[in-house]
Design a protein that fits this description.
Shape: globular
Number of strands: 14
Helix content: 25-40%
Order of helices and strands: HEEHEEHEEEEEEHEHEHEEH
Radius of gyration: 17 Å
Largest sheet: 7 strands, mixed
Strand content: 25-35%
Number of helices: 7
Length: 268
């Protein structure tokens, strides 16, 4: 794919910010009866779907040959969940509203997340955090940025770290892991937080607000864009097993690099 990734990333930022404006305007109009339940504690509304349609339309104009992997499946070009085309075929990975539960409760954060990847690597990532008007973005080899300013991960050790430990909605399968992690790190690190948005949590690691984050049972559109931000900001991203190839999985461990191994050992 012969494409100027920097220019393409800038155009994706524009699309993400426009989608964020739509989310901001619709939040006050959304009523409880318009919210549907996909699974227990996993919600969706017309806002998610319409926002995805807006994002997909914009992305198609940028790169007509690309396929799509989207959370709500509003485009006919979508691949089955968790899969992308072969080889160097580009694929947009889109979450139109990461943090839907926050959104429908009038709580922050929530974000638009857009990544472009091929079979082997992430080419660019954009996360627009709507409530703070913060656009995080990165392209392969171009560093990580927030509203035009370069960002880097922190250099804090585990004893001083702010650690994000999210508890996904599938409590039955994750309860033992989640409670074990909290018992292990509560009091060991500087603090434990949850924010309800995987994309924003990873961006917090990328810009040094948080020092590490992990979650299991998530989908590629939840983490794809922000994982590249962490990497381009100097951090480390792996699976729970420590595998550096995490693109097709459903789990992420991300840190500033100083205590990645400590988190992996705690999971084990």
């Amino acid at each position: 794919m012969n494409t100027d990734l920097k220019h393409l990333t800038q155009e994706v930022c524009r699309i993400a910010c426009e989608a964020g404006k739509y989310l901001r305007e619709e939040q006050q109009k959304l009523h409880a009866e318009q919210v549907e339940r996909k699974h227990a504690h996993d919600y969706v509304s017309y806002v998610d779907r319409t926002c995805e349609e807006l994002v997909v339309a914009g992305l198609k104009s940028l790169l007509p040959e690309a396929s799509f992997l989207t959370e709500e499946g509003t485009t006919e070009n979508s691949f089955p969940k968790g899969e992308v085309g072969g080889g160097d075929s580009p694929c947009w990975v889109v979450d139109p509203l990461d943090g839907t539960t926050n959104y429908i409760h009038g709580f922050n954060p929530f974000a638009v997340s857009i990544a472009l990847r091929n079979e082997r690597e992430i080419l660019l990532g954009v996360v627009y955090e709507v409530s703070l008007d913060e656009c995080f973005y990165a392209w392969q080899g171009g560093g990580a940025w927030l509203n035009g300013n370069p960002i880097r991960v922190s250099n804090k050790p585990i004893e001083e770290a702010m650690l994000g430990i999210e508890l996904p909605y599938d409590a039955d399968s994750y309860r033992d892991t989640g409670t074990r992690l909290i018992r292990r790190f509560y009091g060991l690190c500087g603090g434990i937080r949850m924010n309800g948005s995987a994309a924003v949590a990873l961006c917090n690691v990328a810009c040094g607000r948080w020092d590490g984050w992990l979650e299991r049972g998530i989908q590629p559109w939840d983490f794809m864009a922000a994982a590249l931000l962490v990497q381009e900001a100097g951090g480390i991203v792996t699976t729970y097993a420590g595998d550096a190839f995490f693109l097709n999985g459903h789990e992420v461990v991300a840190t500033n690099g100083r205590f990645q191994q400590a988190l992996l050992e705690a999971i084990e």
